[in-house]
Amino acid sequence: MIKFIPEPRLLESPRGRHWPRPPAPAQPPRDPVPPTTADVVIVGAGPAGLAVASALWHHGVTDLVVLDREGRSCGRFFDRIDRLDQRVLRSPYEHHPGVEGFRDCELLDFARLHWGRLTPVERREIRMAQAGHRSVVPVDVFHAYTDHLAVTHHVRDKLWGASVTGVRPDGDGVAVHTTRSTVRARHVVLCLGEERRTAPERWWGGGPPPAAVSYWDEPPPGPVERQIVVGAGLTAAHLLAAALDGGREVHWVLREAREHYQCADVNSTFFRPEGRKRFDGVGWSERLDLTAEFRRASVMFEFRPLLERAEAEGRLVVHRGEAVKEVSTGITGTAVVQLESGRRVDADHAVLALGTIPSIGTGLLPAGLVGARDGWPDLDEATLSYRQAPAVSVVGAAAGMVLGPAARNIDGHRVATTRVAAAVAARLRGAALDLRVTADV
């Protein structure tokens, strides 16, 4: 059997190109503090929050307040990407924060409109996408597309920078408390994304990492000649590629017996309706088993030739099947990673890429309303609202026990958005009807 391995040059798409953007309508200066009331508050302006705001616009729901700690549409998403020097997305062209069921400019349409700005390799990917094959999306194209969505669906006009400190449902709606003010809403959608997974406390006793050790999403250190990367996923692969490109000697520590290459962390069946149906009608323990079995840390195929060549040349040393026992700083200020096998790896710097965990609302909603179980919230499967707080919904990774492993990917955000936006719009129309009936009486 012949297996096709895509060329690494797909990873080299340019970053920072100028893209024409639709003109934003002129707006009068606005108060830096958000309004005190809104029909819907969306917490988080990443790809999931952008998808929800765009979908609600199509449903005619325009009284929105979008709250984001960065104050920028997809700001943290692209900051993380740029920190890794990432040039392409794992998600293909059909996975994007567009809106299901409405005529809209989709990601593939947008890329074709800007054909003249694309490289020959990027154009070939578009042809692959048009033919129904897997394709790779340049970060530049995706970034310009999210800007396009934010302008054409008036999301920027609804976005305020603020850190949310609490979400408190009551009989009249939901109070969303921020560091700047409180907004009362009839419905809230949490699009919180995921946070980095921290190292086990036993590695160094808990708290911030030792000197010369950092997490993947922290500012990079100064000049480094020898680096350790701990982790088995795509983030680790980007760190490895950047370090090798910088001429460093790199050590890669993998707990598994071998690195795993595949198109996505999630088995492709879960991106299709028949795959998501595997979560319908099965018990909680079966869903946990499916998630554990079919979502695993993996590296895009495009990295394989690059990493195999670096290992053959001695520039990359891979420690396979090695669990970390302890992480510390040596007497000369270097990073020291002690392995369970007794081996020790020293370098100028060690970076930890241990994956991410879904943000499920804990810390914002009262714990009893989250109903956390095995790290997942208790959600109504039809509306993705909290069973104990029907006026609050989630879109993103937190919906994983309803939609399956793909909930954590951009495609899963779109599927969840379709369900949530329709439910929120219907709920608001019902509330409006109730008000009219009361007034008539």
UniProtKB/TrEMBL annotation:
Give the matching InterPro entries. FAD/NAD-bd_sf, HpyO/CreE_NAD-binding
Residue stretches making up the FAD-dependent urate hydroxylase HpyO/Asp monooxygenase CreE-like FAD/NAD(P)-binding domain: 41-194
User: Where do the record's region annotations for Disordered lie?
Assistant: 12-35
Feature: compositional bias, Pro residues: 21-35
The protein's name is: FAD-dependent urate hydroxylase HpyO/Asp monooxygenase CreE-like FAD/NAD(P)-binding domain-containing protein
Species? Amycolatopsis mediterranei (strain S699)
